[in-house]
Design brief:
By secondary structure, this protein is an alpha/beta fold. The protein is 35% helix and 30% strand.
């Protein structure tokens, strides 16, 4: 690997990694790729060791006295870090939130129909946000919206857990329910 190649590898903008010829410290505490301790040696000696092994000299702890550097394959290291991030992201569970809207002047059969949909969502493991929209003068009496959601809750409590009780957010009265955890 030429000096020019070694100088540019890993020093992309935003990378924040200081390596190879970009290291300015005169002396370094050097660790090998296989956890081998080289002790405190000059920067030139550390670069020579890294080049002999076909690896990079990466500054791990620039604030230490003397700074700590490691001889490693930086490309391989970066690949493994990215792979771990992707694996962690893949194992995350994405929460799907469905919304069911009501109005203050809703009939009982309409409530039953909308609750049936909310139950289907909960059975599929989705979280459900129940909302009552307050129109015009209904804003003066948000208690009506809370009453609608209080009528809905008994129809869902056998399969759902109440995360957030009915509360007002702007023109909406919201209630948040999640599926019950299986024991």
């Amino acid at each position: 690997m030429s000096k020019q190649q070694r100088n540019t590898r890993g020093n992309k903008k935003g990378d924040g990694i200081i390596m190879n010829d970009a290291i300015r410290a005169k002396e370094l505490r050097v660790i090998g790729d296989n956890k081998e301790q080289y002790g405190i040696i000059s920067r030139d000696e550390a670069l020579r060791l890294a080049e002999e092994q076909g690896l990079d000299l990466v500054l791990l702890s620039p604030d230490a006295n003397p700074p700590v550097a490691k001889i490693m394959d930086y490309g391989k290291h970066k690949y493994q870090v990215e792979k771990k991030k992707k694996e962690a992201k893949k194992n995350q569970k994405k929460i799907d939130v469905k919304e069911v809207k009501f109005s203050c002047k809703i009939a009982d059969n309409d409530i039953a129909y909308k609750v049936k949909h909310a139950r289907e969502f909960l059975e599929k493991g989705k979280h459900v946000k129940l909302r009552v929209f307050l129109r015009g003068r209904e804003m003066a009496t948000p208690e009506q919206g809370i009453e609608v959601l209080k009528r809905v809750w008994p129809m869902l409590e056998d399969i759902a857990t109440l995360e957030k009780a009915p509360h007002q957010e702007g023109r909406y009265i919201n209630m948040y329910v999640t599926p019950k955890k299986d024991k």
